[in-house]
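WP5 quarterly update. Target: Colicin I receptor. Source organism: Granulosicoccus antarcticus IMCC3135. Length: 669 aa.
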Amino acid sequence: MHFLSSFSVHQTAWSITALYGFSAFISLLHAHDELELFDSDVPIVLSASRLTQPISSAPASMTVIDAEMIRLSGARSIVDILRLVPGFQIGRLVNGNPVATYNGIAERYNPRLQLVIDGRPTYVPLYGGIPWSELPIALTDIERVEVTRGPNAATFGPNSFGAVVSITTRAPASRSGWYLNSEAGGNEFRSGTLSYHGSGDNSHYRVTIQNERDEGFRNIPDKERSALLSISTHWQISPIDSLSVDLGGIRGGHTEVDTVVEENDLNSYSEATNAYTQFVWEHSHSADDALRVQYYYNYFDIQDDNTTTFNLDEVFGNPDFAGLTVDAPINRDSNSTRHEIEAQKTKRLSERHRIVFGGALRQDSVQGHYIFNDELTRTVSTQRVFAHSEFNINPEWLLNSGLLVEKNSISDISTSPRLSLTHRYAPGKMIRLGYSRGTRTPLLLEEEGQVTQEYMISNGDVLTDRLILSEGNLEPETIDVIDLGYYYNNPGQNLSIDAKLSYHEIRDTISTLILRGVDSDNFDQAARTYSNRFDYTYSTAELQIERKLSHQIRLRAAYSHTFDQDADLSRRKLIPGHTLSLFGSVGLAREFTLSTEFYHSGTWIWDDVSKVESKVNRLDFRLEKNLKLASMNITLALQAELDMGGTTDYLYRNQLESLYFARLNVQLP
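Structure tokens (predicted):
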């Protein structure tokens, strides 16, 4: 109802779109069947609809980043890759706690973004966000990254709110032998990765181990450590049956820095274990006639139990407290588990019509005294069914439609529809009009969180600080997006252009609200509670251009502009007005390759720091040398990440500097 009523406010901006859609349906009656399909030589994507589609046929705007671009960009983490996507912002409250968001409106645990690795969601039910520093995947094992720039809940369900990042890892059979990657550089960053790809009778496997350490920002104690093991196996049981078994885990840790006053922080080292097991059975006659059954299990555990001491007068700025110290015991120990089984069936109904449909059962369990102030284990049960249809009305017109219906034990039943109409009006040229909805279920922390901190004063007193008092009865967040997309592909010139104009409406955004006069709090008599506080509307324009001038020269630009923000959103500055990323690489003589990137974001504010304006101005250079020594293929690379000035990363205290790195990659037979 909100969505329909606000649509009239923007009817001028969208009237042309509406007229275009109407005329399009009329012209269907006179379309000619003998026209050719214009999808040849166009990148293929899977994650937009669960159907294998040319990117020009996808129901949403997509960004594809392949392994070559990841390597040439010098990315050291998955969030670094997302800087190349239009509209993405990256920040680090501390080094070990990065956060990524699409079109802003996020905080350190962003619950409005979905990351899927080989079909399994990675966000944890504990805090709702993605544990970017503790993801059990090595960057060198990534084959490609597909980003759906918009809600994709009709395909992936929970958390597929603002955008979906889908990672496909290298198939075990895609390589053979040993691969070693080692990197070192600024702020004592060290990384070593060793992989082996092997095979047996009708089987292939990949084993990867990795160890990393990073001292983070030079001026604060935010070190990060991690050790990873992953195993991927694939058996071809019969010509049409295959079984994949993947398992892995990462033991990581990073310093949490919760500011009390700028001069005196509560520092604690949080250790996390993130482990998974995944089984996938596929019965496939073809890409359009297949059955896929997946089960996966995830375990996420946080160990953070220590005591910090600080001076009370520095907290309150009151000389009456001079000489009094405070012991703050911090016990954030908590864990979560997830079991999910999912089945999907792909079927071609006719030469023009394909569908995919299925369902899933999920159970999330969460336990943590720090979060709930008790020892109980809470569970969330979720059931969902989904379907997507791709119907080629004729060679010029394509209709995509999808629907996901979900029922969970927190917010009951929700629906996420999608509809898009694509007009392929000339070879390599298409225009798409689409609508999609995303839904975000409240987290257990938001619904039932009871976070309390006690401070032991040296004079014998005890102060109780009620940090979060959840009151429950939250409504799910929803986002409705209308977008008008344009895609152009010219294989002869190796040129592709993706442009999009979209209108976004977010309802019932969950945010914290300060409660005053809390009797059980003798520290500051205040606590935070979660509430459906804000409705937002805004529009975006995006442009993505990629050109390969030759097999040695590759150029790419990604730009996003946000406009027509409502008064609340504009006042709070939660979305930057402009983001820009530029990428270029050129092959030089003697097996050298030079690549460079430029990243810029206008000012915006992360939702949990209220007044600190983030901004990005960064220039990277990378020089790579390939050589062959005996039977080894060796790559050496030097990289510089240069701060161009004016950059603020999350907090003013995070002092940025130019950093330099060296990388060695060795391939053994």
